[in-house]
Amino acid sequence: MASAPIPFDSTRQPHWEWQYLDLMRRIWEHGDERADRTGVGTRSVFGAQIRFDLSGGAMPLITTKRVYWKTATREFLWFLTGDTNIRALCAQGVEIWTDWPLDQYRKASGGMISRADFSARIVADAAFAAECGDLGPVYGKQWVDWPTYEPAGNGLFKPGEGINQVAQVAHSLRTNPGSRRHIVEGWNVAELDQMALPPCHKTYQFHVAGNRLNCMLYQRSCDVALGLPFNLWSAALFTRMLAQQCDLEPGELVWMGGDTHLYLNHAELVEAQLEREPSGRPVMTIGRHPASMFDYAIEDFVVSDYAPQAPLSAPIAV
């Protein structure tokens, strides 16, 4: 007599975070050791994938160390403003981007101002921020104000109206959900040299299946220890916000990495994190339904059931 089928029990399913830890271990143990732009050196693999189901409010928050999701959210909301100056971030205590202009300022001035003092001056002095705090046309500028040009006569061109890719995608998801062109692109070849850092998480493509909104993010370069936990959160946040705006349910997040690496000076963090086991299922709720993608505030997002292990830190490579 055949045995009765075993009822499905989600607690027996592998925790999604093992995908992240397995990728970290594969890079650390088998990655190609190579020189890189920063001079620090990395171990790298090419081509990686992580998949995550966003249904039921689930969010890909790493639990084997604390991820400061509010910091990542503030950065994402800043992208949506199109701003490229760190002043608004520094005013919120977000220092994700400070090291790049700080490094340039130190080289230009020959001084060794601390990051805290540099950031405080950026906030206090608008003229100083304008001179020393701009990052060039990074993510937000490309997302909501991609430059265009129109004829100005005599074979010359003048700037035209910028393209808001995010608004376009929100509109196309509502009006033509079956399109294969729901894309937000950050890789503007003509402006790469003007950016403090060319976009790492460069291409977002959205896909509607039934009433579920899926997202695939292609990341050309990925710092797995420090960057990827933020990138996963932000891509999921982007998807959840678009889904709400378009009356869809969040579907699957598919992350794909090109040069996927760990820095050699992150050994202590990597080895400590690989000793830990993931647990829990953090969820996020959005407290209201704003009028557009550009009207959300940090207070709109609430995370529950997030009990991460202790923070792990490592130096950022500039």
Keywords:
two-stranded antiparallel sheet, Thymidylate Synthase, Chain A, globular, 318 residues
Account of the protein in words:
With 318 residues, the protein is α+β, with helices and mostly antiparallel strands. The chain has 2 domains: 15-84 and 164-303, Thymidylate synthase/dCMP hydroxymethylase domain (Thymidylate Synthase, Chain A); 85-134, no CATH class. It contains 10 helices and 10 strands. It has helices at 17-30, 69-81, 87-91, 99-109, 115-124, 126-132, 139-145, 165-175, 228-245, 267-273, and strands at 32-34, 42-53, 149-153, 156-159, 183-185, 201-209, 212-223, 249-263, 283-286, 301-304. Strands 1-2-8-7-6-5 form a 6-stranded mixed β-sheet. A two-stranded antiparallel ribbon has the order 3-4. Helix 9 links the parallel strand 7 (212-223) and strand 8 (249-263). Helix 2 crosses helix 9 and helix 5 packs across helix 6. 33% of the residues are buried. The model is unreliable at 1-10 (pLDDT under 50).
Straight-line distance between termini: 65 Å
List low-confidence stretches.
Answer: 1-10
Q: Over the alpha carbons, how many angstroms does the gyration radius reach?
A: 21 Å
**What kind of sheet is the major sheet?**
6 strands, mixed
Percentage beta strand: 15-25%
- Could you say what the CATH topology of the largest domain is called? Thymidylate Synthase, Chain A
Along the chain, the helix and strand elements come as: HEEHHHHHHEEHEEEHEHEE
> What is the overall number of helices?
10
The helix/strand class is alpha+beta
| CATH top level assignment of the largest domain | Alpha Beta
Question: Using DSSP, what is the number of strands?
Answer: 10
Which overall shape is indicated by the principal axes computed on the Cα atoms?
globular
CATH superfamily of the largest domain: Thymidylate synthase/dCMP hydroxymethylase domain
Q: Determine the fraction of residues in helical runs and give it as a percent range.
A: 25-40%
Overall CATH architecture of the largest domain? 2-Layer Sandwich
Spatial strand arrangement across the major sheet: 1-2-8-7-6-5
Average pLDDT, rounded to a whole number, is: 93
